[in-house]
Amino acid sequence: MTRSRLLAILLPLAFGVFVLGGWEFLVRAAGIPVYVLPGPLTIAAKLVEDWASLAESLLVTLRITGLALAAAVIGGGGLAILFAQSKWIEASLFPYAVILQVTPIVAIAPLILIYVRDTEMALLICAWLVAFFPILSNTTLGLNSVDHNFVDLMQLYRAKRWQILWYLRLPGAMPYFLGGLRIAGGLSLIGAVVAEFTAGTAAGGSGLAYRILESSYRLDIPRMYAALVLLSATGILIFGVFAALSWLVLHRWHESATRREQ
Amino acid sequence: MLEQSPPLVSLRGVEKRFSNGTVALRGLDLDLRRGGFVSLLGPSGCGKSTALRLIAGLGAPSAGRVDWGSAQPPLSFVFQEPTLMPWRSVAGNVRLPLQMQGMSKANAMPLVMKALAGVGLAGFEKHYPRQLSGGMKMRVSIARALVTRPALLLMDEPFAALDEITRSRLNDDILALWAAQGLTVAFVTHSVFESVFLSDRILVMAARPGRVVADIAIDAPYPRDDSFRNSDAYAHYCRIVSAALKEAMAAHDTI
Ligand SMILES: Nc1ncnc2c1ncn2[C@@H]1O[C@H](COP(=O)(O)OP(=O)(O)OP(=O)(O)O)[C@@H](O)[C@H]1O
Ligand SMILES: [Mg+2]
Predict the structure, then answer these.
(1) I need a surface site. Which of A116, A150, A235, B165 has the fewest CB within 10 A?
(2) Which of helix, strand or coil describes residue B14?
(3) Cβ(B189) – ligand 1 distance below 6 Å
(4) Which atom of ligand 1 is nearest to the CA of B43?
């Protein structure tokens, strides 16, 4: 490992330790009560103490996020492929996809929760709504961005429509799709959390956002922080997984994943 | 030279007008004789690429006809740019046309290897296009064109990006392939020297609108090698073709 890469890992770590240490010190030195601002150690202890219930909630949130993302990949990707088949289909449907996207999810969530009885299904729909657009728009752009010379080449080979899609458009759209996926991964988590907040404790949810709400009613601040830490960790995990996936798929050919030779 | 057999393809009064109004070709008459090696020579923008694309069936002429004697024979196109799919390895790119024909990988790979060896790229199968030099990419593109054993090979300035040595080696290789496989070749180039060395016929084009202004037969026997490059006949033809090209370039300056 080169010096600069080592530094790139060590520096943010050192900064994190410094901030956490400062936080802990401040809380102790100023004698701030735990129900106002708990120190990192208190939060960590809470995380361990309540691990059973928090982990259960984490799984619930993860499941909704994952399912919503999967549905977004299928829905957004499928719709993008459909759009690529005909300009008219794209022109007719795309504006509605945009409308769905620009309407804030917080505003639609209560309606969805009214119409869809099953809370989990409602949460899933909310998370899906925010996650599917980046995949749809990125993949559509990618499928339409193929070099015309390649299309000419395929025409010379008398390639069939599905062959052009499979051997040319889909691989060409891959970098765009993966970019969309990275955005959608974070958004589906946000969608799931927003929907859970909207559903509130009454709906009998059990995800991490619900834990935060519940803890706030009980003024259990350390537990709020603990759930928050888990949410952030989930977001980081999702980002990391898709960054790795992106690298895995693209590192042999795409500029975004290859190092520039000096 | 006698025209015994009907031409492989003939273009009559071909016009190409692009959607932005540019008239790239007008009144283009052109015959490709079976087994011939024809070069299209002309200033930049005179419609050489456009003419080649029309022959290949990429886009229809706005007016005029492209007539194939019988059926259109299997043809290959080498574009001005390498046009390699960056996500496919070298072997994968060369295999693409065979794959589109539905040939299995097991059957295709020996042909792919042979085609790559033919352009001096044996051992580079697993590389990706971004790891190759410009000239190597072009050679992959040529291997991809030859792997299907076409009857007609259309080449659009395939060697423009190459160094002199590689270029003259590939010139020799193309001539060998042409002689061995009974190919018909239509070759676009900017280079007078290259066109004289390779072709049995040179069509000089003028621009705005693109058309053929001179049809020069190069009556030198094949096989041609370095001794032809150094011969008086070669120098003689180069002078004639240069003069014709100069005239063609002047033709559009006066319009
Ligand atoms: N897709 C297009 N749309 C509009 N105009 C075009 C298009 N392609 C080519 N042209 C125009 O047609 C004319 C002929 O272009 P073409 O590419 O055939 O030239 P060329 O002889 O191959 O030139 P070069 O030697 O530089 O490659 C040019 O004036 C060009 O601007
Ligand atoms: Mg050209």
Answers:
(1) B165
(2) strand
(3) no
(4) 25
Task: Tell me: cis bond preceding A175? Omega within 30 of 0 counts.
Answer: no
Q: Which fold has domain A46-261?
A: MetI-like fold (1.10.3720)
- CA of B47 relative to ligand 1 center, distance in Å: 5
Helices (H), chain B: 48-56, 90-100, 105-118, 134-146, 164-181, 192-198, 226-229, 232-253
Select from B54, B75, B84, B96 the residue whose CB has the most chain A CBs within 10 Å, as the one to mutate to test that interface.
B96
Domain segments of chain A: what residues? 1-32, 46-261
Residue ranges of the domains in chain B? 2-73+151-253, 87-148
For residue A209, give both structure tokens: 């956002």
Pairing of strands B23-32, B9-17: antiparallel
- B93 contacts: CB under 8 Å, gap ≥ 6: B84, B85, B129, B140, B144
CB A140 within 8 A of CB A169: no
* Burial class of B191 by CB neighbour count within 10 A (0 to 12, 13 to 18, 19+): middle
**B87 with A174: Cβ contact below 8 A:** yes
Query: What does the alpha-carbon distance between residue A23 and residue A20 come to, in Å, rounded to a whole number?
Result: 5
